[in-house]
User: What shape does this take?
Amino acid sequence: MEEPPGWAADVDVSRPSIARAYDYALGGSHNFAVDREALRRAREVFPDIDLVARSNRLFLHRAVRFLAGEAGITQFLDLGSGVPTVGNVHEIVQRVNRDCRVVYVDIDPIAVIHSSMLLADDPRATVVQADVRRPESILTSRAVTEFFDLSQPVAVLMVAILHYIGDSDDPAGIVDAFRRATVPGSYLALSHISPDERTEEIEQLEQLEQRSQAARTGIVARRCPDIAALLKGYDLVDPGLVHVPMWRPDGGDGTADPFAAAPERSTLFAAVGCR
Ligand code: SAM
Assistant: This one.
């Protein structure tokens, strides 16, 4: 496993972090007062934010179960993987096929430290601290070159990460760099927040995030056609690009999506595509 560089010095407890605030929204304990306060402020403008986090996480679970099962993928590159929580990708996919390998990537030192500890005894999963805006640094990292056989298909997971990448950082170019690094038969799973529904609440959330600096670029909610454009080069599996609760709802883990009755209220779009 690669040592996260300078990790301890990296932890900033004076500013909220997306990874830690998301952990708090999901009921985790790897967060600080500043993160909890940031989430409380976010709830004031968007009261359903914890439910959106949960709905997103349930999509991640369904998508990787599909990828490890029906799609037969054994290599997973989880970009913006977050703080480990209930139902981590390696736990889910290794339940389907114990040979599955997972490389987690996150920019956040707390996410990386806790992932390293969790994965210490798992020879098939590792974590690397890196910035998804620099795809080459990830694709040439020891984690990827030692864990993956890039002549075989890989599932690239970009679940609730691209809305932290501003247009000036060329999100489409980032997606394409990972697509080009993988062979045909590889997959992309993506979820992304959108202002198409609950527009006023989402706009207020964007403004709040800009001010709080929790995310390095704030949140960039994108309209459905702009999210579709990010999926260029992938053939979407059924049901295509839809609100997250509508992506193959199966209740497989016995947990109902909080927006099952009104999927558009989730404000998240999701898709899985094959290269
Ligand atoms: N993918 C997980 C999920 O859907 O449950 C976690 C999503 S969480 C909302 C977003 C994650 O993306 C955070 O852990 C954050 O640290 C990470 N992130 C944000 N910008 C990043 C970047 N430029 N490079 C790598 N990770 C980033």
Summary: Residues 18-19, 22, 56-57, 60, 80-82, 106-108, 111, 131-133, 159-161, 164 surround S-adenosylmethionine (CB under 6 Å). Residues 49-68 form the longest helix (20 residues). The chain has eleven helices and eight strands. The mean pLDDT is 93.
